[in-house]
Give the backbone structure.
Amino acid sequence: MTCPPRLADRAHCTAADSVILVAAISGGSFTAAQFALSGADGLDSSFEQKVIKQNTSHLAIGGFLKPIYWGDRTAQVVDTFDSVLQFDSRPATFMDIDFRKQPFLLLQGTDILSGRAVPLVQDWFDDICSDVNRLSLSLGVAIAGSLPFALNGVHLENYRESTGCRAIDADYEPSTSTSHLAETAALARENPLEANVARYRLWLRAALPMTVTGGDGKVVAKIENPRHRTIKYLHLFDGGLSDNLGIRHMMRTIVNDGTMKSLAQKGVTNIAFIAINAHSDPIDADYLKLSGPNWIPSLIMSAAFGPVERTSEMTTFIQDENLALFFSSKSPSDSTLYPNAFVIKIDPDVLAGTGRAEVLREDFKAISLLDQINDPQIDLMREMLTQITDQSPCWNRLKDDSYSGCYVYFPGMQARATLVPEKSVQPKK
């Protein structure tokens, strides 16, 4: 596989070497953090023993037996992760990830009061006058996977109204200007999704009401705040509650004209979006079989996780459509200005059918995350991943470096072209 520009001195690179960004929420956030910190070498047998095979039920019970964790269940998670996410024999922070050599780590939480996704990146930490580099990786992982009721969440103070951003850095300037956010928020009719995100960030900055004028003195944007809403704390829980694939902020950041052109100018010819969706089937609930009150606990579980599953389906659809919209707007003469796009879905549902594929699908979905994962189950996951990638035309084209781009809804289905129709089915000349 062709090496990325930062590894141009190598003759050969693996897929892991070529990763430039890894985004994760919930249970996948710990593996993502370790990969970003230490690369593929960090996902060794020791990590597998300490993390993948960890008995979460025993861990939870052990926490309840220690009075120090009674008032803060999240603290136990942070202490546990601190012992593994290490840098120079101390708990690692976001600053310890060398993005020149390692992939960018994108974790996110959910503001439980608004349901808004909050990515743990400096651009958003600018809104609350804080520094993401000082955040420990274990706390970031705890934010990304803090399931309500099971854990207490993480509560970040917004310093805007107390000390202010200048108290942290006299030369402070936000990555995204407040005027730009106001202009975006004013375009609610044209793009309501982006406008709502911008308005939320303006609340974080205590910037409303405000009026933005252009160079000619004319009003460009005017945003009121009739309810005088302010946000003094971010109460962050599992990022999967707002985006169970953890890809929306990534797509918003990468799939735009400026970023894609910048990647091409830096020598990136191919960019692959690999979306891993280890979602579950509907719970084998008692209320599917019984008519008595025994179905109530199962109904509560299904009511909690069912909407998350449906949201994941919508997120997948939006990702596909955003990529199709971006590339379909380009002309054939633009083909050298942007990287070729590959979308690869790692989804157990593509194994539905008969034979070994169906067995792999059902056995994988039967694995309980509350119990200890054993070697046969890990082997099953590896076999399932191999089958999915082997059947993915997009993955095979990327791996062989012989095609110019492709676009598929799911591995195994017919490829759909994006940039230039004929380029997704013809090899390079």
Summary: DSSP finds 14 helices and eleven strands in the chain. The longest helix spans residues 296-328.
